[in-house]
Structures are given as structure tokens and as C-alpha cells.
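Support reply, case 0932

Customer input (verbatim):
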Amino acid sequence: MQPTKAACSYATWLTSLHRITMLLFEILAEQRIRDAIANGEFDNLPGAGQPIDFEDELFVSPEQRMVSRILKRAGLVPSDVSMRQAIARLREEIKQLPEDDAQTENKRRELTYLLLKVEEERGFS
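Our regenerated output:
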């Protein structure tokens, strides 16, 4: 039996709603993190400035630990991490540029592209 057109439309609507909800949660989480940083809530935490060792992490699968170890030894960073680093760098650059500048607009386009690419890799697009 084929799903009805209404059922397909409803499923599409639910998928869109899920994407919007996830984006809103991400925006809210990022804002709360920025606020906590601004208020100094992350200052002087134990292990601050130290690299995270995923090799002994209980909640990381053995496969992920192996991949992390190989990448670390090769001096490589996973693509999602490098994209997030580029996103953070672009956001900082945009803050420093004049609002109505051609260079600012180019940086915003580049930032939008990277954000969409991250979402696509996460499987929400």
C-alpha cells in the first residue's frame, strides 16, 4: 500500500520541524556557552588547557578511539573539527570587519557555506 499524499506531506513537515528544533537547540546551547565564557564560568576548571585523551574514555567506541589515535599520530584533524575551527575563525574575523564592507559580505558567505556543509555532514539536510 502506497502512503497517501497527506502522509508524505506530514512526514516532510515533521522532518522540517525536527531540523528547525535542532537548529534552535544548537543556537540556544551556543548562546549559553558564550554567556558562560563571558561570565568566567569556565575559568580555572580542572584540566584547563590540557588535551583531551579519548583513549581511556569509556563512552567512546574502540573503533573511534583507534581512528582518533591514528589521526593524532598523523597530525590530522577530522574534517568536522577543521570546519568548526574555520567557522570560529570566520566569526572572529567578521566581528573585526566593518558592517557594510564587501570583504565582510564575502566572509559571511563563506561562513554560511561552512555552516551548511557541517549540517549536511551531520545528516540534517
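We compared this against your earlier run and they match. Two observations from our side: The helical segments are 5-38, 62-74, 79-96, 102-122. The first helix runs from residue 5 to 38. Please reopen the case if you see a mismatch on your end.
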